# Entry
Amino acid sequence: MSEHAGAGTAAPAYDEAALGPWDFGLALLVDSRAYPPDLKAIHRVIQGLPLDEAVAKAKGSWQVHDYKDLAAGLAALERAPEPAFLLAGEDGTHLLTSPDPLQLARAMPPDHSDRWNSLNTSVLAEFVLPVVWGMRDNDQTVRIVHHDTDAAVRLAIRTGGTAVILKPLVVDDVLAIAAGGERVPRKSTSFGPKPRTGLVLRMFATD
# Structure
């Protein structure tokens, strides 16, 4: 209600039960039937972890497959069942698959659903980073690279670290987890379509 309303003006009636989050901020509504969600991967770069050290530590709990170049590794990642991660950097490309089930089960939080615990980002945040590599999943340790695998590898090489290449999450998994009242781990999803960014100016000057 306007603070300048007159004394005789009645306040508008609101049905608080009918209000939703969209009544308190801006929202972009997209017809998902006409424009299905486009979910892309968000990769990580661990700057303080050399690739050879990352691979050596992973061999205690993962199957490690070596590839000569990034293209071959990406093709293998695409075929691999989840959870799987492609490690890349200065000295080659290595695919992690088939984690030890006992080690993995001990690491994943029991207060989350099985579906949440099966996400590659959940396994990375709860098992690979803290247990396998002994590192924290935070902005000081982990650099984020959206979508671009080549950019992630270049950053890893430049910093002497390890690029962790992920496959994008499945939209149905994200929706099911949200419907169950859970949130996916940080930096798990990059949804499209997105509104265009920019600035619109309207001139009021007259001739």
User: Anything to note?
Assistant: The helical segments are 51-58, 70-79, 101-107, 114-118, 120-132, 149-159, 171-179. Residues 1-7 have pLDDT under 50 and may be disordered. The CA atoms of residues 41 and 168 lie 4 Å apart.
